[in-house]
Write a structure and sequence with these properties.
By secondary structure, the chain is an alpha/beta fold. The chain has 14 helices and 20 strands.
């Protein structure tokens, strides 16, 4: 239980971030109460304000340094990058912040004998006051289940046989267990820590794994489909619906949201109704039936919706002239599913009518490949492009930077801006301030 006096006292926050997350971390820090330092550098010349230096040995192996006073007894927000190249370094920093040894200031040690301080017992155990770990894009969520697979005679994977001899490794749960690891042994109690993930593909098994570790102080919350929030979860899509889409809707009767599969509809359709003030009809919140055999995906050429009694209904109704249609999902790799859905939508327009078709994903993945980003932008600007606009968050900064550069070049040549990036900083900072941690919250 938190004391009310603790809740009214402003926290001393410091924001640390992995390489390539400078802008997002600055955005979060600028919206936290008080003056909040953002304390990182990826260069070899740290300044007096540097708190975390992602240095390396000539071999490329990590040689990380942390400024003592910027983290000791501070409420630290650690923003983690999806980049697997920095995975070990980030895990090392996360565990270090829980409990670290500070050698006593000693001239003899400074002459080259610092390692003796531990043997001599001349060090202080320290830690952060609390740790909030934010993973804007939980990369490993793409494999959240275990299916049985077999290899066909054509050397293709097939999960349609009940006695398949291979199993998926559910990396979503594996990485959750890694994040929940115990810190280096010591006597000082580990500080309380909490974790925030954004628009997770599937949350049930992941939450079970995180809960079972008994390492996180997140307040237990039932998953709220209206807000896309839960014990460890928040939704960028809800933020988009409230702060971007809602202001653009001039006629709810001719506004539609289409999900490219039933899973996305299940996760988000009540959120759409709530975020848009309950004005949009259920029959305007549709999904496209999608079938998957191994790695092959087929989209049906019709739409389904849930009625007020939660019964699945097909619809042959055409989108009226002037309708605005949003195609929404949690993430995309190639953009193929979004573009395919947009083509199906346009094929169901009233004859002679005009539609405005846009798409939104929280996480623009693009297989982390600039060529893939360029190819998507090319399709977005093609003469027969099925999409008028594309929206995403800045949860994957490297990919979003490529997207912005590709689109800026087209805008500079006179084309309209057809891709828009929604910053997450305000949403993430609000979550941090709404969930303060105190020493009694430690596990």
């Amino acid at each position: 239980t938190r004391r009310s006096s603790d809740l009214t006292r402003p926290a001393e926050y410091a924001v640390l971030h992995a390489p390539k997350l400078e802008s997002l971390a600055q955005d979060i820090a600028s919206q936290l109460e008080g003056t909040v330092p953002v304390l990182c550098t990826s260069g070899l010349l740290p300044t007096s304000q540097t708190g975390l230096c992602w240095d390396a040995f000539p071999s490329g192996d990590p040689n990380i340094k942390v400024r003592i006073d910027t983290v000791r007894d501070k409420h630290v927000v650690l923003v983690m990058n999806h980049d697997t190249m920095h995975l070990f370094e980030q895990m090392a920093v996360l565990l270090f912040l829980h409990r670290f040894n500070v050698p006593h200031a000693d001239a003899e040690y400074a002459r080259g004998a610092w390692k003796r301080s531990v043997c001599d017992g001349r060090y202080d155990e320290a830690s952060v006051a609390s740790l909030t770990v934010i993973v804007p894009w939980y990369r490993h969520c793409q494999m959240e289940r275990t299916s049985r697979w077999t290899l066909t005679a054509q050397n293709k994977w097939d999960n349609g046989k009940p006695d398949g001899e291979f199993l998926d490794v559910p990396t979503a749960q594996s990485f959750a267990a890694m994040l929940s690891s115990l810190p280096i042994p010591g006597h000082r109690p580990a500080p309380p820590q909490q974790l925030l993930l954004i628009d997770i593909h599937e949350y049930d098994d992941l939450e079970i794994t995180l809960d079972s570790s008994h390492r996180w102080a997140n307040r237990k919350r039932p998953y709220d489909f209206d807000r896309g929030s839960g014990t460890y979860f928040a939704s960028a899509f809800e933020h988009f619906l409230k702060h971007v889409l809602h202001g653009r809707l001039t006629d709810v009767a001719t506004s539609f949201v289409v999900f490219p599969d039933k899973g996305a509809h299940r996760r988000f359709y009540t959120m759409v109704r709530t975020a848009l003030g309950g004005e949009i009809a259920l029959s305007n919140i549709l999904w496209i039936e999608k079938s998957r055999v191994g790695a092959d995906i087929v989209q049906a050429e019709h739409f389904l919706y849930l009625d007020e009694q939660q019964a699945t209904r097909p619809t042959d109704a055409r989108f009226p002239d002037g309708a605005r249609v949003l195609i929404a999902d949690d993430f995309t790799n190639s953009g193929g599913t979004l573009l395919g859905a947009a083509k199906i939508v346009r094929g169901h327009c009233t004859p002679g009518g005009q539609l405005h078709v846009s798409a939104y994903v929280s996480h623009f993945v693009a297989t982390y490949d600039r060529a893939k980003v360029a190819a998507f932008v090319g399709k977005l600007y093609a003469a027969d492009a099925p999409l008028d606009e594309f929206h995403c968050s800045d949860s994957i900064p490297t990919v979003v930077k490529w997207l912005t550069e590709e689109v800026d070049a087209r805008v500079g040549a006179g084309a309209p801006r057809k891709a828009h990036v929604m910053p997450l900083g305000a949403m993430l900072a609000a979550w941090v301030q709404a969930n303060p941690l105190q020493p009694e919250d430690r596990k």
